[in-house]
Structures are given as structure tokens and as C-alpha cells.
User: Fold Aminotransferase, class V from Sulfitobacter indolifex HEL-45.
Amino acid sequence: MQIPGPSAVPDRILSAISQQTIDHRGPDFAAVGLKALNGLKTIFKTEEHVFIYPASGTGAWEAALVNTLSPGDRVLMFETGHFATLWKKLAEKLGLKAEFIEGDWRGGADPDQIEAYLAKDTSHEIKAVCVVHNETSTGSVSPIAAVRKAIDSAKHPALFMVDTISGLASLDYQHDAWGVDVTVSGSQKGLMLPPGLSFNAASAKALNANKTAKLQRSYWDWAEMLGPNQTGYFPYTPATNLLYGLNEAIDMLHEEGLDNVFARHARHGAAARAAVRHWGLEVLCATQGQESGVLTAVKMPDGHSADAFRASTLEHFDISLGNGLSKVADKVFRIGHLGDFNDLMLVATLAGVEMGLKKADVPHEEGGVQAAMQMLA
Amino acid sequence: MQIPGPSAVPDRILSAISQQTIDHRGPDFAAVGLKALNGLKTIFKTEEHVFIYPASGTGAWEAALVNTLSPGDRVLMFETGHFATLWKKLAEKLGLKAEFIEGDWRGGADPDQIEAYLAKDTSHEIKAVCVVHNETSTGSVSPIAAVRKAIDSAKHPALFMVDTISGLASLDYQHDAWGVDVTVSGSQKGLMLPPGLSFNAASAKALNANKTAKLQRSYWDWAEMLGPNQTGYFPYTPATNLLYGLNEAIDMLHEEGLDNVFARHARHGAAARAAVRHWGLEVLCATQGQESGVLTAVKMPDGHSADAFRASTLEHFDISLGNGLSKVADKVFRIGHLGDFNDLMLVATLAGVEMGLKKADVPHEEGGVQAAMQMLA
Amino acid sequence: MQIPGPSAVPDRILSAISQQTIDHRGPDFAAVGLKALNGLKTIFKTEEHVFIYPASGTGAWEAALVNTLSPGDRVLMFETGHFATLWKKLAEKLGLKAEFIEGDWRGGADPDQIEAYLAKDTSHEIKAVCVVHNETSTGSVSPIAAVRKAIDSAKHPALFMVDTISGLASLDYQHDAWGVDVTVSGSQKGLMLPPGLSFNAASAKALNANKTAKLQRSYWDWAEMLGPNQTGYFPYTPATNLLYGLNEAIDMLHEEGLDNVFARHARHGAAARAAVRHWGLEVLCATQGQESGVLTAVKMPDGHSADAFRASTLEHFDISLGNGLSKVADKVFRIGHLGDFNDLMLVATLAGVEMGLKKADVPHEEGGVQAAMQMLA
Amino acid sequence: MQIPGPSAVPDRILSAISQQTIDHRGPDFAAVGLKALNGLKTIFKTEEHVFIYPASGTGAWEAALVNTLSPGDRVLMFETGHFATLWKKLAEKLGLKAEFIEGDWRGGADPDQIEAYLAKDTSHEIKAVCVVHNETSTGSVSPIAAVRKAIDSAKHPALFMVDTISGLASLDYQHDAWGVDVTVSGSQKGLMLPPGLSFNAASAKALNANKTAKLQRSYWDWAEMLGPNQTGYFPYTPATNLLYGLNEAIDMLHEEGLDNVFARHARHGAAARAAVRHWGLEVLCATQGQESGVLTAVKMPDGHSADAFRASTLEHFDISLGNGLSKVADKVFRIGHLGDFNDLMLVATLAGVEMGLKKADVPHEEGGVQAAMQMLA
Assistant:
């Protein structure tokens, strides 16, 4: 499975989630809950609270907004790609006024444009700035620390919310040091779990906003979680077996070392791009330094259907490439290199693409795999 | 584990959920999704739609309300016990006017009182009647078909919503034949799964109400699900591995036969009550014919702490009894006999209770286990 | 499963054996092999060598003999029951002269008879004395330390071999302190593993005998094992995944504490016998102090078929009782209480037997379960 | 893991072996046993009997000999490599007179030499001809059908025994059609299981020889197996959980189709050799048409240590190559492509070797991976 997530779940994690479910109100559960809640802090790099939802990432997107905002609030978002667009639609559906800084889907969010936009909002009507860290539809990474600086330069009090559903635990991420107020993430990418858990990390400022935020909420309400979480419990039934897996994943990440995990993904991104360029194809992310180590989106040559190529490659080489979404549908395919991925798995993936290009008669220069191997060896 | 849920997860299901996660957008997923969606219909006994949420049961409670109601709507609920009370609080938190017919926690919902209450609402301001089928805090079962008749007798157009989180797949339940509009359920009781999935079954009338309902919703919105579900897919990332388990559970229930499953639980409930009565203790459910086959709540003799007894029994016999909740805290303990449970597991559970009563010096007549065995043999 | 073995395999062990197989010649294997080899010493209570065979217990019986004896050697065995008889037949098949002290299958080996027999062998033609520790066909335990004393009293140099296939890790066993030369055991009883591994523990005297023993051997030959075992390896491909399980089992036994394990089985044996006697049935083992804590064999009342009773009990209560073997075929049924077994499992088992007696119209006094509970509480 | 076995165990099989152990004497076991016994016949392509041992492959080697031969019997073997040599030593240890036709380890057994050797044995003192089908130490395949013809041409009555421990279920094998009398195999190669099971397939002639063969045997004795096997049972405790895995493996092989499995391995062998030759290295098997599809042994350039190269490659690219054994120790490394192996896993393996050659400064032409991809695409 080489699509950009869900990532392949390592055997250790599959084994962990297949342990017998224990009573989530019983005395033994506290250790499970506390390990998960505290362990996640080390992954988000935060001293603040991390909330765990039995829900997919879409739920954590919603949670971030309904916990901190009120109906009609203005929210600034940046169009990095398909997932930023979906988050904007969700905000609108919740009754927020979501405003987009448009983007060309070929890079991350632009701090300068954000600063300029905020500077014009002298009455501070904008209540939140929402940015996608790793845009899974394009393979571009937004410079989160720089966006923080932009907000500060504009002296704007808006909350800063970041979606790192596909970035966390693959790319460096620092909730506290980067001054993020709400971080949204999920289980099935860098954390290498099956889908079913999602997360909010919240700053003191965000927790404070929660007290006056008027959007309707119950399941997502942070206020209900804080008390039980102190002792490792949850206000409603948690997804116990996925928490077993989460705890195993946190151990695995620390055994390898987060910095090693990040370096591995950076190396794989560079090798994948070397192959793509050798083939004579174009990487969708056109902004140097913002290419993702999690996945590489590749533009299909004109006159060729990316989806037809993906189908052919799946059939002949059993390799599943990500599809182009909405604006880039059928024009792009995506190579995932996330989660529990090593050098040889990357070579195998690139070999599948190269053999697929040949099989589908897509014009290309052979030898991309060899080019990637040069980078890796 | 003998608490009233989560039930012990059978090995077959643990094995199913530990299979490798597949791409929830890929071609192989359709079969998984369709089997789950269609299989659930056979469990809810409905030809209508069943929605699957990656969420705990609390989420499905919320979903039932936000999909069909508007802010300020009046909702009639019946105080069967703790969980009915929690559902009422949730309704209030969402901005509904929830009204309780008070109960003594010793039986299910009373159709006559419901009919009388609705009859007075001549202007049909009440938009929904909400009843808990199997009240996990008391071990009482509401007569759902009779409540439907009560609503019809009152010629009242309110939607009929039923929580059978702990009843489904243990007690007979008929979404269509009983005229329920929204049924709420979850994965971790009769379906024998780990927690993390919950469900709404919706009638045509409920789906119609969804079109005009004004409560804020996004994650829970049925409207987004209907389209993708047609082909076995979901609008956002499903909890794939729990779906594997769900499909295995559906197979297991049909292999045994739903009627056999129901008969088994009925027999276990009767045997458990025989033991309790032999001990000289009182079953909390005082309404004949409404005692649950899923769990048996037992009143502690005056002057004895139910929680101290539970702690002692856990320590000495490794058996986990359910605690009394809110109004009956420390006054009641609950014996679970749900899910994948057989005669000998019931005997073992009752033996643990009887040996626990002795160890904790709770006055009782010995021989309750033998009395239960008489019923079972 | 309540037969006297294979015992129910705990989830922890099933999970361990489902880990990916590693290269048994690679560097990571050493830790697995050494943990198993050294860990077993703590279970056999020996400082000597323990040999691990990818084989069932029958193989370890053969290994004990072919490694130490020569064609035509005389061997003294004691007829404790069916398994002692099988071991004797195996010895004869290998070309040894096996001699039986006959027994009535109602107790363990008798040290006095052994001493008397050896005393007559003034020319020391008898090369080995072979005794079954826990005779699985009868539920009797031989007094191993006393047999050692008997051999010593007779001043006889024969090797002392003990089969504790079903006793090890359930009953106290001390290879070194009791002066045993070769101990034979297997994986699927007290070690709680699936079948597929078996063992020989060998004293220095036995290892010395190996050098001159003339029976044909290759697969079983200790001499080939000793070298590779020093560093945790094996001369041929080991059953790697079962070794994973073995290491987990050794951890589990030490977590509970071997003495606690032994006490638990002793208590279960006493409670089982209390039930049997209350029913008015007879325990096969008639020698006080030699009743097994691993299983209890029960004599069927005259005129009743034990096998018909067993079949009926399996059908109606899903409980699998052990059958009577050879001399006691159809006259005895056996209740297993070995391995990972707790008080409530024992009660459940006894309840199954008692309900089974009722269902099959076997005359008995009701209340045996209650009698057992008296012993346990 | 790319060593030439044990092969990586597929998740389906790991899941199968982690099911609860059932009673090997109980009624449910028959289906498990019969499926294994009959299923294996379809893999060995025989209508005769296949014996299953809870033992490693070494045990099945011994079983083949002790079941059919008598002390002092002459046996003709062919020195295809290390494993043929081990089998010969084992024969000698059992008291047989094993005679070698020497080989250079660069091809399979030579039918012409065998015919010539047998032709000289006019008194028919040679009782068996033993050949290794797929010699795991060299990557050469013996022409089994041609050896059968050679024996027939020599009009020699010797039994024909073949070791296909590493060939079965990867290379075409036809026990009946090729006139083999005893076929030896094991679980951990083409059958994709963990080690712990091994097999003998026996012709009517071999079963007949069993009746008069005088070598000492008990555990391995076919005669004890035949009866119980008729109904799916075994004379001693089988390795139940490995049988679960075996049954799953047989299903997987038939789902893919044996011919497709063979074609896949043939293709992988050809691609691996293309890479090796592109690198400018030499394939150990020098006999055209006898190169193995299971593994490829590669000669290390003079002056370079194969073992140092293997250690470096393991360290840097986490790829485990097989070592050179005895005569070719340190001069050869072996690339495994056995079992559940696909095109991209082969590319990944070859990439690991090529990057390893670079890292270890072994002179080679880059582009071997690309050459293999040409063969595969």
C-alpha cells in the first residue's frame, strides 16, 4: 500500500489492538489512558492538553472550531489544496464566515499574504487563522512558525489553528514553540494506526476561548474531557483497542527517535523527487523548501490520464497510488512515503511507478529508480 | 470481565480487527463497507438506512437529535435510569427543551404515561419521544412496540427515537415493525466489538425531517453519508479495522441465529434472578416482564456498601461487577450477562458473586448458584 | 476446554506466537534462544542443560532413552497408568528390555517396590528407572524425591528418568534437588503453549552416559545441541514462533510466582475432589496425598458409560471432559484444571459436570459445586 | 527478510496460527487434520500418503531413511551442495553406507552419472538414491524426472528419495508423475509457515519397504501414523496451531494457482540473475536451466569477503542475505526470493544489494536494479 495514508500498520500495532478490551471505568484503564494522553504531548511537543476523540480526523477539524468560536465568527483560511478547501466548507457549514486566501496548490500557506490580510482587519473581527501543515492533496508543507510570526507581526489576536493530520509524527511539529493554539491531527498517518482516533492539542488561550465560544457542541466539548482526563479516563466510552495501538505507536516513535523519523522522511522525499525529475515529470509542489517528506504529488504529462495510469499500475504491479483531488483530478498522482517506511520500500514504490509508466506508455526517461538509489546509498 | 459491557470480545473478532488496514478509497473497500451497511440492517431488522459513525455511542445519541430537530424543539423523554438522564442532559446542551416523565428506576418506560403526556400536547409542539430500550443502569427493558402504540393512540406526529445501545443483538429489536424513527446503538455490547463505532437507523420520516432540521451539524450529518454509502464508501475516513470486526460479528450472530441469541440471554437473565432471589437479595427491576436479559442489577442490603462489596469481589475473585450510577450509587451492583456469554460463564459469574458475598460478610442464603443451575440444566 | 490438556492458550501467548518469524541464524535470534534455554532452567529448577526439541512430548520420551541407553539395556518402569504404559512400549520398540512394576492405576509410583526391585539387581543390569510424575490418565502424582531416595537406598547406579509432561509448571518439580537424571516435558500443559515443543533436562551423569550410549540417534542427539545452544542457537531449524510463546509463558509464570502457581493448582484439586465426593462419586486416585492438582479422574458409577456421559455433556454444556484410557476406558472421565485456570473457571467446569450428570440421569447428590465453592471462598 | 528462508510469513497465516488450540482428540479436530493431510497431497501432487511431523526438516530427512532402510544399507547420494552433504552425514550417523557422487556445487544432480553408478551395482546392493531438488546452499535445481529415468534406464530397484524442503510450493514438483518414492519437505519455505512441521510423501513401494526396514524408529514410524490419519488424527500430539497455518497456506497457494506461483518464482529468478550479471558478478549455478527460482547464490569477487559485505548490507539497508556455507563460506552470498514474494519486493531486495555493493566498495556496474526491472515490466 503506497497511497498517502492510511499508512501500513506495523505488526506490533496490529498485535496491540487485538488485545482483549478492558473496562474503561475499571482501575486498570487509568494507566492506558494516562500513557496515551501524556504520550501524545511528547509527539505534539506541548505541555498543554491533548484531547483524544473516538472519531476520524474530520471530527477533530470540527472540534477545533466548535470549541473556540461562535456563530458568524470570521475565520481566515489558506487554500493550500483540497483538504484546506474541505475544512473551509466544514467551517461554513457550522455557520462561520470562512474566508480564503486563494492559492495555486503548488506550495504551503504564504505568511506574507496572511500578515497583509490580518493587518487590514483592524477591528479584529477575524477570530481564527486556519492553516494546513502538510497538505495531503499536493505534497506541500506550510511554514507554521513563519505563519505564527506573521500573525504576531500583524499584532492580531486571532487564534492560530493548524491541521497536521498527515504531518504529525512524520515532519517536525512543535505545538508550543510555534505558538499554535489548536492543533488537529489523526491516527492513521504518521502515528501508523488504523483510522478511528483524532486529536486536538489546545493552548491556554484556546482553552480560555472555549469558555465563551457559542457554537453548539456536546460530543466535541473540551470542557467535559478535562476533568476525567486528569486521571486517565474519558467522559464517554473511549476506543480502547485503538488506544492500545496508540500507546504502542508512541513507544515505537521514541524508540526510533523523533528526529530520526523526521530525517528519514526528508530523505525519502528528496529521493522520490530525484526519481520524478529523472523521469522528466514535474513535482506538483513548486515552492522550494516546502516539498513534503510524507508524499510526493506528480503532475501527469499533458494528454495522459493520471487515473488511467493509477489503475494500470495497481493492476500490474499491485501498487496503490493516490489520486488527484478536485482541481487536480486526473492530472496528478501521489506517491506516499509516510509512516513505517524504509529505504527499500521507497525503492520498491518508485520501481512500481517506473514500471507502471513503461507499461502505460507514458513518455519518461528510464533510470529514476537508479537516481533515487543514488540519493539513498 | 462480568461488568455490563464492554462485553468480552471473542477471539474471532480480535483476529478480524488485527488485519492490515486497506485503503478506504480503494476498490477493495466497497465489499467491506457494503457488508457492514447491509449486514447491520439485518440486525436492526430494517429495510431503511443504517448510518455508521467512527464514534462512541454518545456520538450516535447526538446524531439522532441534531439530524432531525431544531433549536428549541420540545422533546419528551422517560426517566428509566442514568442513561436516559444523560441523554436528556445532552439534548438540553444542544438547545432542545427536554421534558422528563419521571420514573423510579425500577422498570422500563410506561406507555400509558407517554400517551397521556402526548394527548395533552394538542398543538403538537413535542417533536420527538425518546426512550431507552435496555437501561444499562437498572436492568430494565422498555416495551418499545407498546410505546409506538401509545404514540399512535395519542395521534401524535412526534418522531420516535430509541436508544438500544446495550439491547441490540441481545434482546429482540425490530426497527421497522415497531415503527421506530431513529434507533441509536453502539458496537461494544451485543455486537461484541471493542468500542469505537456507533449507529443510527433512520426511517423515511426521520430522513425527511433531516431536510428541515436546523440544529448545527456536520460530522453527524446523515445527508453527507447517504450518497457514498450507496456504493459502500463513507464521506470521511471510516474506522476500517473496527468494520472488519463488525462484519465478523454480524456473521457470528447469524451463525448462531438471532432468535437463539435472544433466547440465550433470556435464559441467563432468568437464572441470574433465581440466584439473586435465593440469596435473599432484591432485583432492582421491579416490573415483571421488563427484567433485562443483558444484565441484572441487584439492590444491596441496607447498611452495606455496594462499592465496597464490588471492590472486595474484584480483589478476591477477579470478577468485575458494574457499579450503581447516580441515584443508586453504592446501593446497587450489576451483573452483566451480555454478548458472547454461555451457561458456564454465567455460573462462574454467579459463583464469584456468591463467594464475594461470603467473603464480604453480606448476609445471604447460600445456594444461589445451585438455584441458577436448576434453571439452566 | 476442560480436558486435561492441551490447556487453553492465554491471549498473551497466542499474540506472542503470531509475531513475524525471524532468521534462526541471524544476530537477533540469539536473545530469543538464550531466553528460552535459560528460562526453562528456572522452571525445571536445574543448573544443568535443558534441550528443546521441535517435537511433541513423545519425541522427548524417545530422546531421553536414545541419548543414554544401548540396545538390550534393562529399564525399570512403574505402571502408574496409560502414559507409563505407552512409554514402556516405546522403550521396547527401541530395543530396550523394559520391565514393569505393575500398578492398579490408583496412585503414583511406589518407592518401596522400586527399592526392592533394584535391590535384587545386584549386578546392576538395570540401566534406568523411569517414572511418570503426573500420570495424566489417572490424576495421580508419583513422589519423585522418595523414588530418588529408594534408588539411593538400594545403592543402585541406574539413571533416574522422570516424565513430567503434564506436571511441569503446575506441580512443584525440582530436577536438581530431587536428583533426577533426565526429565522429560512438553509445551502444551503447564507451560500453556500450543503443542509442538518438548524438552529434556539432563544431569551431568546423563550427559556422561550420552557419550557411550549406543542406541541409534540423530535428530534427538544431545551432543549436537550442546555447542550451538551455548550462544542461543540450534543445530537445525527451531520452531521459532513457539519459542516466542515459550518465552512469554516463562515470563507469565514468574510474574505469578511458581509457588503461587503450585498453590493454585493444589487448591483447585482439593475443590474438585470435594465436589466429586459430594456427588457421591469416587476419585480414581485412591492414595491420599498423591491426588493431582492438574486433573481429577472420576470413576463412573457402575452401569453408566463414561463416554456417553462425556458426549452428552459436550453437547449440552459445551464442556470437554477427558476420556478414560485403555484399562479404564469408558469407566472414567477426567476433569482438567491445568495451566491458566482460575477459581471461577473451576466452578464453571464443575457446574458443567453437575448439570451434565443431571441431564444424563446419572445418580448423584446435587450441591457439589456449592461444596467446591466452600473450599475456594 | 530476504534470506533464503524461513520465508516471511504472510499475515493471514500468522493470524491463523494464533487461533485457540483445540483438543487434538476431540470431534472438531478431524476436519483440521483431514484438510491438512489431503491438502498436502495436492501440493506434493500425489495420490499417496503424506506424513506430517511436528519436527523440523531434519527430522523428515531422518524419517525418510529410518522408515525404509536397514543398518548397513548402501545409499547413493549426489553432492549438490551443503544440504546434500548434511543429509549424507545424517545417513552415516544412522548406520547407513552413504556414497557420494561428487559435485562442484554449481548445478543439480547429474542423471548420467547416477545411471552409470547404478549400472555398476549389478547385485543391487544400493537400496536408495537420494537427491536434493532445490539445493538451498547453491541455488541449483536437480532434474528430478530425469533422475527417475536414469534409475529406470539402469533397471535398478533402489528407492528414489528427494529432498524438496526449499523447492516445494515454489518450483513445480510431482511426487507421483516423477516416480519419487519418498519426498521430504518442510513448512518454512514455499509453504510460508513458521518452522516446526515437516513432511514425508511415500509411494506404495516405500510403504512396502517400511514393513521390512530394520533401522530403529518410533517417533518417525509411518506405520503408527497410517491408521489414525485415515480419520484426520495423529498417534501423538500434533502441532495444532501450525496445522491451522498449513491449512491457510494450502488455501492461499490454490487461490493464486500453483502454476502461477511457479511462474512467479521463475520470473523472479530470471530478473535476479539479470541484475547479478549486470553488476558484473557471477551466479554460482553454472548449469543453464538449473538455476533456482527460489534463491540466487552470487559469487563474491576475489579479494572481497562475502560475510563482511552481508554484515554491512544488513547494518545499512536492513536486508538479510544468506551466507555461503562450508565449501563456499565467505565466498558466496545468497538472495532469497521465496514464498510470498512479489515483483516490488524483488526490486527492493536487489536495490538493497546494489546499494550495499556501493557502500562496501565492491566493484560493480551500477544499473542492475534497472536491468531486473526490464525483465519484470
Chain C has a mean pLDDT of 96. The CA atoms of residues 169 and 258 of chain C lie 7 Å apart. Chain C touches chain D through 53 residues (CB under 8 Å).
